[in-house]
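Example 3.2
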Amino acid sequence: VLPTFDGVIDEVAHYNKALTADRVSAHYFVGIGASSSGTVTIDPASDLKAKTTAENSSVEFSVTPGGDGPFTYQWYVNGTELTGQTGRTLSLTGALAQAGSYTVKVSNATHSATSAAAVLTVTPDLTPATVVSAAGIAGSINQVQLHFSEPVDPVSAANPANYSVAGITVLAAVPGADGSSVTLLTSGQQQDTEYSLRVSGVKDRSASGNPLTATVPFQSVWNYHYEVLADSPVRYWPFNEGIGGTAASAAGGLDTDPGVLTATLSSGEFTSAPSLLPADPNGFSAALDVLQAQYIKVPNGSDLNATKGPWAKKTIELWFNASTLPPPGAEDLSAAYGLWEQGQFTRDIALYLWRNPEDQDPDKVSLVFNAFNDSATDGPGSPFGLKTNPPVYVEYKGIQAAKTYHVAAVFDGDATGTNGSLILYVNGAEVGRAAGAGQIYNHTGDVQIGQGNGLIHSLASGTLLSFDGAIDEVAHYNTALSAQRVAAHYQTGTTATGSGGVPEIRNLQVVNGSFVITWSGGGILQWANIPAGPWTDLPLATSPFADPINTAAPRFYRVIVR
C-alpha cells in the first residue's frame, strides 16, 4: 500500500479515450486562465495562394502559424469542414471535384484565426495516356510488358480485346499494382522478332476517361535473366557489374532497401571474369581468390532468413567453375570449400565442395547440399538433421576443376513434420535426394556466397574455406523449383535460343470462354476427353494456348516430346 498523498487534488476526470497532446495543452492553458497574450496569427509567407493544377496532379496548401502554441488546425473547402484534415499541410490529388476555395482555421487554447480563401482551379485532362515502353518476352514466358505515361483505368486495361498483335494472340491483360503498367499474356512469341502492338480503348483515370488509340512496335527477347525472374526469386545476383566491390540483386521479394539487397565482396574488388553462361558470352561472373580468402557477404533480410519464417520451401541456384579443389588428405573444415551458406550452428542451409576421405582421386570431389534445424522448441517441422538427429544431406560425387556446373539445391521440406526432402540438381538433372527435411526457422547468422560459417554434415564446425574460382547467377527462392523448371533454367543458360527442356504444364485457367494452357520446355500440346486417351495433337499450339471451352464433354491436356 502506497503512503497517503498529503495535499490538495482538484478537477479529477476519467476518460475512456486517449487525449491528444493538443487537447491536454488546451486543458492546461484554460485551467491557468490564459489571457489575450495567447493570440493566433497566420504568417503571410504561408503557402495559401491561388493555384491551378492539371487533373489528377497532386497539389498542396500549407499554413505557418504565429503566436502562442501549441496549435491545432482544421481545413475547409467552400466553408465545409474537411473531415480528418487537421495538419499544417493539406494534400490533394487534383481530382476535378476538388476545385474550390480552401481555408484553414488555426487555434490554440484560447484563440483562433482563419485564413483568407485560397482558390484551387483544376484543369480537365483531355489527353489520353501514351505507351512509354513495350517489351516482349518469348520462350516459356510469352508476355508483353507495357508501361503507360500515367495510371490507366483498370477495367479497360484488363480487357484483352483492347490489344492486338499481328501474328500472335493476346490471351489476357493483367494491370500492375502501380496502375501504370500492364502485362499481356500471349500465344507463342518468336525470339528476336519485331512485332506491332495495337492498343485501342484503354482509358486514363480522368473524369472524361480519354481512350488511347496507338500502334507501338516491340521486339520479343528471351534470355536466362527472364527465365529466372519468371519464378519469382527473392534474391538474384547476376554479377554483371564486372568491377567494384558490390553486386546488386535483380529481385527483392518483400525487401526493397538497396542496402539489404546488395551483396559485398569481403575484400578487394571483382575482376572482369567472363560469364559462366554459354548463352551470355558478353556477361561477367564473380571470380573469388582463395589466396585472399575472398567471399561475398549477403545482408540478413526479412524474406531471406531473418523474420518471415519458418520456410518449408527454398531453392538455392547458381553456376560455378572451380579453379582448385579440396586436396586429397584434407580433413574437417579444410576439406570443405563453401558455395552458399545461411544460418550457423542451430539452423542452416549450405552448399559446398567436399573432399570425401574415402575418395582420394585428386581430380574429383563431392558437391554436398546440407540442411538442419536443431531446435526442439521452434515448432512443427523441427528438429531435423544435425546435431541431435541423423544428418540430412545429399552428396554428388564427380565435380572437377575447370568445368562449369549449374546447380539447384531444392529444399522441399515439410511444414507439419519431417517428411520432406532435399533434392540436388546438377546441369539440369536430379543427381540425388535425401529424406527427413522439416522447416527452417528464422535465423540471423552469416549469409555467405563462396564461404560459410556453420556445421557441415560430417559434424565439423566453424568457418569453411573460401571457394577458389568463379560463381555466377546466384538466385534464392522461397519456393521449391520443379524438375521441369530447373531443366528449363539450365537449357536456357546453355543455349543461345533457350529452346528445349523438359515439358511442364505450368498453368491452366479460364479466360474469356477459353481454357488457357501455359507450359514450358517445348513439345506438342495434346487433348483427350478421358485421361486414358485417345490423345489428339494440337500441332500449331504454342504456349500459352487458348482452347475454346466445349461444355459437351470434359477435356484433358498434356504435353509430349517426340
